[in-house]
Specification:
This protein has a single domain (about 10-240), classed as TIM Barrel (Alpha-Beta Barrel), CATH 3.20.20.70. By secondary structure, it is an alpha/beta fold. The protein has helices at about 25, 50-60, 85-95, 120-140, 160-170, 185-195, 210-220, 230-235, 240, and strands at about 10, 35-40, 70-75, 105, 145-150, 175, 200-205, 225.
């Protein structure tokens, strides 16, 4: 199988803008990709505006950009619904995001999803992966890349199994949240070895400068995303992250 490499060398991670209110600023900041959300298919009372509101704002801003970074939309599961609702939640999210997103990211990294990250829920998660892959295949004109975001963990084998399961169902990339551990790059390298080039691999977490980014690339990442350094410095963080610009690679 041809390698599906990630087309965005340096991206802005999700969690900074959940409603599109900062879209003009973030899309013009200079990143290869900007991920919005995580949002749920319907609005929630905690300030989550829901997917439709986010998509509406992004459509208005992105149409005016001469040079547009790739737009990612992070999809989560609504609070108060049972785990069994995950496949339907994700399918609804894909249908709602597909017309504006350059990739759709299904987020299992947030604290509210931690209970799903064990072997007992693997059949449910595989069903969710298959469901969104089937939606993409069955709906005319739906070619948006599918991405899984998950915590990489320190020593648990389950994240590696989960990533492989997503790729086996047709996911195009994995966004791996690196652990706060001296073994973080060892874990990333292990995941890269397990994926064997079948999907793009993106590292996020603790990437603060070009040295951190280069270390992630050397461990097998196709791209990196940043979060905290942007919240601290804004677009002024970019010069320290990019030693020499590199063009991204397209999905195979």
């Amino acid at each position: 199988m041809n390698k599906r490499s990630w087309p965005c060398r340096l991206g802005l991670a999700g969690g900074i803008d959940k409603d599109g209110s900062r879209a003009a600023e973030l899309l013009a900041a200079g990143f290869d990709s900007v991920e919005f959300g995580t949002v749920t298919p319907l609005p929630e009372e905690d300030g989550n505006p829901g997917l439709a509101a986010l998509v509406s704002r992004l459509a208005a801003f992105s149409a005016d950009l001469t040079v547009k970074p790739r737009i990612g939309i992070g999809i989560g599961m609504s609070s108060g619904v049972p785990p069994s609702a995950l496949p339907d939640e994700w399918a609804s999210g894909l249908r709602g995001a597909r017309d504006i997103a350059d990739y759709v990211c299904f987020n299992l990294s947030a604290r509210r999803y931690q209970s799903l990250l064990n072997a007992a829920h693997l059949p449910l998660l595989q069903h969710a992966f298959q469901t969104v892959a089937d939606v993409r295949q069955s709906e005319q004109g739906c070619h948006v890349p599918l991405v899984l975001k998950m915590p990489l963990g320190v020593q648990d084998a389950f994240p590696l199994v989960l990533a492989e399961a997503a790729v086996a169902e047709g996911f195009d990339a994995i966004i791996a949240v690196l652990p706060e551990s001296v073994r973080r790059l060892d874990r990333l390298r292990l995941l890269a070895d397990r994926l064997r080039g079948r999907a793009g691999l993106v590292a996020v977490g603790g990437i603060r400068n070009a040295e951190d980014a280069q270390a992630a690339y050397a461990a097998g990442a196709d791209g990196v995303q940043v979060h905290r350094i942007f919240t601290e410095l804004g677009a002024a963080c970019l010069p320290a992250l990019v030693r020499s610009p590199e063009s991204g690679r397209q999905f195979a």
